[in-house]
Each structure stands twice: as structure tokens, then as C-alpha cells.
Specification:
By secondary structure, this protein is of the alpha+beta class. It contains eleven helices and ten strands.
Length: 389
């Protein structure tokens, strides 16, 4: 379908696709096998200016928004979401600063993030605080003109590779979720260390590590916004980035469909190419239809978010939920079309199926997305009843 992209948007899409085809596809299997983070590909993305597509021009960015970011993420995900999440994870770490940081924080950190000179990461999840974001145990204790952080963050994308971290910690545990605050912590700060690199089912080309804070002292000016804003900053950050997870799902599913079509055109059984069998055609038709529906939703939501300063938690969750479910189904069907070959590591769809699962889990499980969507529906319904409509 024609989504009426501007020349600049087409340029972003085509540039990301070129990197995906020429730089990512040739090495994705090796990176997956070695569980290796690719600084080389991150540098290519940086040199192409992709890290700044969603940042304002005043900070050296392209001046785009959620939609432009989704275009780049989709194309990188077509080749490998281990690579695309390393790219997108930097945006996840940058959004708290972009949306809630003061002018000095933005000028200090965003230009380096936007040029890809330094990667960013977001630190929320802990061993006992996943979907229940309000259960975090990491603390930040005020001491004069500084804060001291203690605690451990778990499963942090870009952990150890990033140099700028947006960290959520409790400044007043008695207030529950309202006692959480957000801080900027730089790699190399005394008391800030990294745990082991996690071994994962999928997205093995991305780095996932623990962040360990032991009497880590940071200046007061590293507080984002004000104390008690951590939970709100977290929710607003995820609202901004969840369409990017949807874009990952669309790109990954498209890559799986393309591989399945190519294989079906080559594989011969019963003296016929299997693409001539109606059963295969029906599978491909369903896959293509689901992908296009997911793409239309993700694009529509991203454009809506860029043009409306309103609350968009519901539609943001919908984009993540639907597209990630589509990615899981499409990759499973792609493996089925490949048959026994699809189960072998030398063919790409085995990796794609493993990768797809994380999309239903990170940045809020799909069960949590359904909670968010349901709660927003209830609020809207109550509002309409109160207005008498």
C-alpha cells in the first residue's frame, strides 16, 4: 500500500533498508550464533544519521517523531530485531530526557545520543518488578547536592554498551509508585557496575545485562524533572516507544513472509513448486493480510501521536499488542512452510521465530497491554456517560 510518505520519510526508510540488506543480513546468523553486539553496524547507523530521526533539530536531530523512528525500526527489523532493538533501545533511554529533562540536560546528552556517538539505555526492570513497575527496590537517597543509588536492575537492553542511562529509583518508598524518581547515570560513575551478559532465546545480537548500583553517587542535577515523577516518566516513555515495538513486529513478520515466499517458489514436492498448492497460498495470503493490517495500525498510531499532544496510551498499546501477536503467528507459519528446513539454524526463519517471542514480552507484556486498553475503554465510556452521549 502507498502510505504517502514524504521525500524525507522515504529517504529514512530506504536508507534503513539499504543498511539492513547490505550490512545486517550477511552477518545476522553469525551475530546470533556468537551472541555478539555489533558496534560496527551501530556505527553505520550513526554515520547514516538514523539515531537522530526522532530528535529536534536544535539537538542535532532530523526533527521527525515517532513515525519516522518506526520507519527506520521496521526496516532494520526486517533483517534482525537483535540489531533493531540495539538501535531502538537508545531511543528508549533518550525519551525521558527529551520529554522531561531540563534544557541543560537536553543540551548535554541528546546531541551525543542523536549522532550515535553514545548509546542510551533505560533502567526500570528488576528481579521482582517487571509488569509491576511500582515494585522497584532500587533506592536513591538524597544527601545534600547529590543522590546515592543502591540496587540492581535486570534485563536491561544495551546494558554495558550504552554510556547514558535513564534510571528509575525510589526516593520515597512510603508513597509507593508515586515515590519513584528518574535519574541520568553515566557509565563509569563510581559504584555503577554491570552484571553478566544474559544468554537469551532470541535477539542474541543485542546486549542484555544487569545494572548494579552500590553507593553510586550522582549529582542532584542528574534528577530528571522532580522527585516523585519517575512512574509518570516511565509510563509516558513507554507510550512513546510502544509503536516502535509494533514496527519491530511488522518488519520481522515481513522478513519472514518474504523468506517463506522465496522458499515456496523454489521448493518442489510432488513434481510441483509448493507455492502452487492452495494450502500454501492460503497461508501466505493470511500472513500478508495480517502484516498489512499491523503496518496500517502502527503507521496510523504513530502519525496520530506525532500530531496530537493528547493521551494516547490506548492506541499505543494497541499498536504494540496487535503487531507483536502478528509477528509471532507469521513467523510460526513461515517455519511451517519451510517444513523440516525451517527448524534448522541454517535457514533464517528459525531465528525469526525465536526473536519474535520477545515482542510479546518486553516494554509491557501483551497481557498488560490488554489491561491498559481495557482500562482506557472504561474511562472513555464513563466520560461519555457523564457527558450524556
Amino acid at each position: 500500500m502507498d502510505y504517502f510518505l514524504t521525500e524525507e520519510q522515504q529517504m529514512i526508510r530506504d536508507l534503513a533498508r539499504k543498511i539492513a540488506v547490505e550490512k545486517v543480513v550477511p552477518v545476522r546468523a553469525e551475530l546470533d550464533e556468537k551472541e555478539e553486539f555489533s558496534w560496527e553496524i551501530m556505527k553505520v547507523c550513526a554515520d547514516a544519521g538514523l539515531f537522530g530521526v526522532y530528535l529536534p533539530e536544535e539537538y542535532g536531530g532530523f526533527g521527525g517523531g515517532v513515525f519516522e523512528n518506526c520507519l527506520a525500526v521496521e526496516q532494520l527489523s526486517w533483517a534482525c530485531i537483535g540489531i533493531s532493538v540495539s538501535y531502538a533501545g537508545s531511543g528508549l533511554g533518550a525519551y525521558p530526557i527529551l520529554m522531561h529533562g531540563n534544557d541543560e540536560q537536553k543540551r548535554r546528552y541528546l546531541p551525543d545520543i542523536g549522532t550515535g556517538k553514545r548509546l542510551a539505555a533505560f533502567g526500570l526492570t528488576e528481579a521482582n518488578a517487571g509488569s509491576d513497575a511500582g515494585a522497584i527496590q532500587t533506592t536513591a537517597t538524597r544527601d545534600g547536592d547529590s543522590y546515592t543509588l543502591n540496587g540492581t536492575k535486570q534485563w536491561i537492553t544495551n546494558g554495558g554498551e550504552a554510556e547514558i542511562y535513564s534510571i528509575i529509583a525510589m526516593t520515597d518508598r512510603s508513597r509507593g509508585a508515586r515515590g519513584a524518581s528518574a535519574f541520568i547515570v553515566e557509565k563509569g560513575t563510581p559504584g555503577f557496575e554491570f552484571g553478566k551478559k544474559e544468554k537469551k532465546l532470541g535477539i542474541r545480537a543485542s546486549a542484555t545485562r544487569e545494572l548494579i548500583f552500590e553507593d553510586c553517587r550522582i549529582p542532584r542535577e542528574n534528577l530528571i524533572d522532580r522527585e516523585g515523577m519517575g512512574f509518570i516518566i516511565t509510563m509516558k516513555t513507554f507510550d512513546k516507544t510502544r509503536p516502535g515495538i509494533g514496527a519491530q513486529g511488522v518488519g520481522l513478520a515481513q522478513g519472514a513472509l518474504d523468506a517463506a515466499i522465496q522458499y515456496a517458489r523454489e521448493r518442489v514436492q510432488f513434481e510441483r513448486k509448493i507455492i502452487s498448492f492452495q494450502a500454501i497460498q492460503h497461508m501466505l495470503a493470511d500472513m500478508a493480510t495480517q502484516i498489512e493490517a499491523a503496518r496500517a495500525l502502527v503507521y496510523s498510531v504513530a502519525r496520530f501521536m506525532d500530531s496530537n499532544p493528547r493521551d494516547f496510551s490506548k492506541v499505543s498499546g494497541m499498536a504494540k499488542l496487535f503487531a507483536s501477536d502478528v509477528a509471532m503467528k507469521v513467523t510460526i507459519d513461515a517455519v511451517q512452510i519451510f517444513g523440516g528446513y525451517g527448524y534448522m539454524r541454517e535457514y533464517p526463519v528459525e531465528k525469526m521465530m525465536r526473536d519474535a517471542k520477545i515482542l510479546q514480552i518486553y516494554e509491557g507484556t501483551n497481557q498488560i497491554q490488554r489491561n491498559i486498553i481495557g482500562q482506557e475503554i472504561i474511562k472513555e465510556s464513563a466520560g461519555r456517560r457523564k457527558a450524556g452521549t
